[in-house]
Every structure is written in C-alpha cells, then in structure tokens.
Amino acid sequence: xxxxxxxxxEAKELIWQTLQPKPLGTEEIPLLEATNRVxxxxxxxxxxxxxFSRSTVxxxxxxxEDTFGADENQPSKLKVCGFVAxxxxxxxxxxxGEVAEIVTGAPIPDGADAxxxxxxxxxxxxxxxxxxSVTQNENVMKKGADIKSxxxxxxxxxxxxxxxxxxxAALGNAKVKVYLAPxxxxxxxxxxxxxxxxxxxxxxxxxxxxxSLCAAVWESGGKPIYAGVVPDEKVPLRRALEQALASADxxxxxxxxxxxPKDIIPATVDSLGKPGVFISGIAxxxxxxxxxxxxxxxxxxxxxxHPTSALLNFFLLARPVIQAMxxxxxxxxxxxxxxxxxxxxxxxxxxxxVMVQLxxxxxxxxxxxxxxxxxxxxxxxxxxxxxxxxxxxxxxxxDAGEQVRxxxxxxxx
Length: 413
Ligand code: AMP
Ligand code: MG
Description:
single chain, alpha/beta, Molybdopterin biosynthesis moea protein, domain 2, Molybdopterin biosynthesis moeA protein, domain 3, 6-stranded mixed sheet, 7 helices, binds adenosine monophosphate, binds magnesium ion
C-alpha cells in the first residue's frame, strides 16, 4: 500500500472529518451503577434543597430579637413552649418571649427566625436562660439555600463521580439517563506476543499493549473488549479483525504496521470494507507508522507495537474519538508549565513527543526531565513518565532552561 505521511494537524483534522464521532444513544440505569458514566441530560432540580429551612445545631428555636443584649451576666429568660421533632412538620409556633427545643436537621417552626446552641443555654424546667445573642437566620440553613427548584445543577456530558452521584441523589433520582458507552475491541498482533497468565516460552514476550490500551479505554469512557493475540498471518488476522468489528464500535490493534514482511495489518484492515485506510503514517515521533481506517461505520486504529508508541498514539488520536462517542464534553489533557532540565531534540520534520518526569527543584521550580532509555519499546519509559513535551515539526530542539508545557496522562477535571 502506498504510504504518504500526513502532519499531526492534518491527521487530527482527517480523523475528525472522516469519523465524525457522535454519541451512540442513551440508556437509563440505576444511580448506584452510574459511576464513571456520562450524564446524557442536564440535571434540573424539581425541589428546593433543603426542602425546608432547618436548624444546623442542637438547641432552641427563637425569635432572634428576644436574645438581643443577652450575655453571661444577663441572660434572656425565655419560655420553652414545646419541641420540634425531626422528620415532620413542627407542631409548635414560637411566640414572642418563647423558644422551642430543636435538633440538628429539624424544620424551623413558625415564628422562629434563629436557633441558639444548647451550649449557650441553661434550662430550669420550662424556663430557658440564654447566655448569648443570635442574629436573624443564625444556625439556620434556609429552604433552597443549597439548590433552588428549577436550578440546573449538572450539565449533560459530565462524567459521574462520587460527588455528582451525591448531587443526583439529593434531587431524588434513583435512576439516571446516561450515554451508551462505546465498546472498543483491543487486539494484539505478533507471533512473539503471549497472553499474560500463560507460561512464557523462549523468544516470546507478554502482551503489554492490549492491557494498557484496555485500561486507557476505561479511562476515556469506553468499554474495552479484550480480543486477545493473533499471529501475523493473513487468515487468522482477517478472521480476528472481522470478529472484532462485529462485536465492537471501534477496533484498536497494535503491532504489524511498519514496513517489515510481517507487517500485514494495514493491507488486511483495508481489505475489510470501504472507505478503508485513510491515514497510513503520521509525521510524529514516536508512533510514525500508525494507521487509521473506517470500515463501514467503524473506526479502526492500528498502532505500532512499541508500548510507548501505542499508548501515546492512543492518547493523541483515539482518545478524543472515544470521548466524543461516549458523550463526554471534550477535554484537553491536563498540563502544567515546567522548565526543561536539559536540551530535548526533535526528530527532523516530525512532531516529537518527549516523555518526561517532573521533579521539584527548590531553586528552579518544576523541572521536566526526559525519561532515560528513549527507546519507545520500553514500558518503563511510560511508567516513569508523568507526561510529555511536544516539540514542533520545524523546531530543532528545546533548550535547557526553556519553559515547556508538560501534558499529563490525565484529563482536565
Ligand atoms: P511491531 O510494531 O509489530 O514491529 O513491534 C514493535 C516492537 O514492539 C517489537 O519489539 C514487538 O515485540 C513489540 N510489541 C509488539 N506488540 C506488543 C505487545 N502487544 N506488547 C508488548 N510489546 C509488543
Ligand atoms: Mg509485530
């Protein structure tokens, strides 16, 4: 197959134009199972929260003005007219000169506009000595103070975590409408690649990529399907790819995209349907031979076998597509500014991504140190890296001491 490298920017544009990723639909699921799912409609409160003005302390509901001027030497003497039970409408009304006993979370009774803490009082039968004054609304959480009826509290596209689940529960929801999570089949290729959990024969290596990619798929909002390891042979490869396409919304493969005799992935993918391969190589480092195809409606990303290249390609190219299909509001990777700890070279004419570790230097601030080993084959490169620095195609190097932006392997919240 003819190879023409496109630039990184062209590749992103082509991927967006060709794949036009959109959410796949919605489903209603129990809120208890909604963690990490993506909200499919704005959450609008139908109630005030709290639904009634309530006490934030244990004590006595009063008219604030009845306590004005009270202090340790001159307590206000007020009459206890009853108590407010928690969890029901108050049956007492507080008149001038009166108080009603109240506990944290109970509704403020009519007539009262503040609560004195029990610690500030002393009770003798139904007379209460109040040793300090309170202002209006003191120790009261007003109805709707947290959330007002009609208020939009979460926007569609939000990923649901513990805090968002709590908010939805506060609105009274036991179920929630979320986007369908796209399913992503992940296939490794190569006669040397062995599934973890099996013995490792001589000359073989364990499959890193399918595992790291499945984890990255979860992190991006997709649902991975581990599709195993296939040798670089046409017939089994074709069969595995067909099966992956039938079972998933997107297919990811790794290995077999270079120019060696065993690198039959691009041609095999291309033969599976139209429009076929539309990117065969991007002017980036690492990850140059990456191939992207559309088979019918289904995107296929084929990454090189080097674990760092595969995962970096995923972050740069596949992750935004999965996020969009998952209904997530697109987010950039999180980034921070740092100072280059030494000169970092780029590959001529290619957008270069240098894996770096962040180190705090007391004088220079946060330093970006390139992770040693450089070879994109080493998984330790990735494990040690906190992120990567991007060097433009026309730039020869970033010099030591220059400020750089370090992209982290996680999303902006
Ligand atoms: P390839 O892109 O198939 O030429 O592979 C490049 C390098 O990555 C070779 O050293 C492979 O053994 C290695 N490799 C390929 N696939 C995997 C995998 N799934 N896990 C770990 N290493 C791999
Ligand atoms: Mg291979």
